Amino acid sequence: MHLLDFQCDAQKDYVKPVGFDKSSTIEIIFKHIPAVYYLAASRVYPQTLHLKSRSGIEKYRFGIHGEHAVFFLAQHGADDINNEALKHPKSNTTTLKDQANAWMGEISPGIRLNAEEIKGADAVKLDMQYLQPSRGYTNRFKPTHVGLGISYSLPVVMALLTSKPGEILLIDSPESNLHPSAQVAIGRLASLAAASGVQVILETHSDHIVNSVRVACKENCIASNNVALFYFDRETTKREQYAHIHDIDIDSNGELSDYPDNLLTEWSSQLLKLM
Asked: What letters, b where the CB count within 10 A reaches 16 and e where it falls short, cover 55-91?
């Protein structure tokens, strides 16, 4: 069944639905797809105080820019996550706070997040501590005094941990400001969410995320036939330039059906220059 028909104009960079105005188009989409969440590449920068928005977390959960993620954590940190398949192997409970700390620990080892509502104010305070072996946790640090990747990746982790089977989750550039090992952890968590019935769509420039998903296929964390990989490159002719989309399959060993130029090649290319 086609919910919408689209008209394409070669002179414009978008397609538009035929026969529907904007409001009715949104209405018909959300009638058939009731739970779609989008996290943009431009996410909130490090800040100590975050605004409370109960209507925001009810409607958008974590927010398009991750602006509600801290308040959501403060409100629901003691609640169990909806999907036990996302439980971190080293965590003791399935509460959202424990899971957020465990998965964020893959990004910044030993971290403990503290999201606390400020009484009498429409704000939530965020800070973090680190586990010091044999001495417990450190003093509290402000988000502005630790790596940018923590603030940038927290909404990504929250989006994945709060996802439910049947929902659609789109995340733009989940790898931003993260070390390679942290990118691998994000790819692993996204694979677990997708395997449990969440439709996860990642737009990424990261070899590490792609390879993490490939490893997840090989380790049976997700069936390879439930993974789709599309690689975009630019074709240039005398008359025009356009996007060439490579539809690539991944097998149960994590091997790709096609390796287009510039896909997963830069690492080896630079190493060869050092030999």
From this structure: ebbeebbbbbbbbbbbbbbbbbbeeebbbeebbbeee
3-state helix, strand, coil in the chain (%, to 5): 35, 25, 45
Which structural domains are found in the chain, ordered by start? 1-28 (no CATH), 35-227 (3.40.50.300)
Q: Residue 38: in which H helix or E strand, if any?
A: strand 36-39
CB atoms within 10 A of CB 156: 27
Q: Strand, coil or helix: what is 125?
A: strand
- Please tell me the pTM assigned to this model: 0.87
Mean pLDDT for back-to-back runs of 10 residues, the chain (275 residues): 62 65 60 80 95 88 94 97 94 96 97 96 97 94 96 97 94 96 98 96 96 97 97 91 93 96 88 90
Which tokens hold the place of 259?
């390796």
Element (H or E) spanning 152, and its range? helix 148-161
Structure tokens at 19: 């026969």
Residues 6+ apart with CB under 8 A from 211: 184, 187, 264
Maximum C-alpha span of the chain:
67
